[in-house]
Design brief:
It is built from twelve helices and twelve strands. The protein is of the alpha/beta class and 328 residues long. α4 links the parallel β3 and β4. The protein is elongated and about 55 Å long. The relative contact order is 0.15. The N terminus is likely disordered. It holds the Pfam family Peripla_BP_4.
Length: 328
């Protein structure tokens, strides 16, 4: 725990120092007048952010906002691209390498499919930071750091909270086939819950089918009294399925958006595991800027953790305004 606090404190202090050195009162890059130590080329950093999120996904839109906010404050340039197909995501990395960007930020839901592309970026002298998923492979592929939460730990803590809430049989809903991080969440929940946990595979691109599948499972197995969604959209679908099945089960979910906030307030969702994805967009830009301007690194070879945090009725009002403006 102590090392995590040191890492987080280091990020906060480094970010403040960098903003003080490179930004004016408006938070944008100031011109180099020869009276400060920032290099003249410090505004030339171009970063390519490449994720496995789908277009319009509420979670990844917050990551995008975080990256863009950091870029504006630090005088960097950011391009954001996403593709749920691992092969297509690898090609996006290859394109960024060919464009000779100054840094790459990439999520690794399917790490092995991205291995060659990431290693080629590193060989080309482009610093890479991985985010969100794939932390176990990050250092192996040559990335300078990983920013995110440890999925198995987050799942374990969610399982413990559901057990403490009195649940005895849990349904863990996986919405993307082949996403290693989602399986880690369910495995962690199984460990923390200590009771019966069953996985249910659904397709995130078909919300109607998600609701139908969860409803059918609840009707066929009335012992299920807890549903763990791994995505905010799935959580909303699960809450609707519970009502449609006249079930007494309750929903908990990973990740936060305005709909989940409303559902927590209404009592339809017990809690959300908040990995604070805004930071997963924001912090890598700060880290790449620090590396470019001062050869700084963060993490010491360990992941820089953004979660898990938990949002429930006790603190939902505090974060609600930030969820509305797209930053939580």
């Amino acid at each position: 725990m102590k090392s995590r606090l040191v890492i987080r404190a280091g990020i906060a202090l480094a970010g403040v120092a960098l903003l003080a050195a490179c930004s004016g009162p408006t938070g944008t890059q100031s011109q180099n007048t020869g009276n400060n130590s920032a290099p003249a080329a410090s505004g030339d950093l171009k970063v390519s952010v490449i994720t496995h999120g789908t277009a319009g996904d509420a979670f990844w839109s917050v990551v995008k906002v975080g990256a863009e906010d950091a870029a504006k404050q630090l005088g960097a340039g950011v391009t954001y691209n996403s593709d749920g197909d691992p092969g297509a995501q690898a090609k996006l990395i290859d394109n960024a390498v060919s464009q000779k960007v100054g840094g790459i930020v990439v999520s690794m839901a399917n790490p092995d499919a991205l291995k060659t592309s990431i290693e080629n970026a590193v060989k080309a002298g482009i610093p890479v930071i991985t985010i969100n998923s794939g932390s176990a492979k990050s250092a192996e592929f040559g990335a300078m750091a990983h920013v995110g939460q440890e999925e198995s730990i987050a799942g374990e803590e969610a399982g413990k909270k559901l057990k403490a809430a009195g649940k005895t049989k849990l349904l863990c809903v996986i919405h993307e086939a082949g996403n290693s991080g989602l399986n880690q969440r369910c495995d962690g929940a199984r460990s923390g819950f200590g009771g019966a946990v069953e996985n249910l595979q659904v397709d995130i691109s078909n919300p109607t089918d998600i609701e139908a599948r969860i409803k059918a499972k609840l009707q066929s197995d009335t012992a299920v009294d807890g549903v763990l969604a791994l995505n905010p959209q799935v959580a909303v679908n699960a809450a609707s399925a519970i009502k449609g099945a006249s079930s007494k089960a309750q929903v908990a979910t990973f990740d936060l958006n305005a709909d989940v906030v409303s559902s927590i307030k209404a009592g339809d969702v017990l809690f959300a595991v908040d990995q604070q994805q805004y930071q997963q967009g924001y912090l890598p830009i700060v880290m790449l800027k620090l590396f470019k301007d001062n050869a700084n690194t963060l993490g010491g070879g360990k992941p820089v953790l953004t979660g898990p945090g938990f949002v429930d009725k006790s603190n939902v009002d505090k974060v609600a305004e930030y969820a509305k403006n797209g930053k939580r």
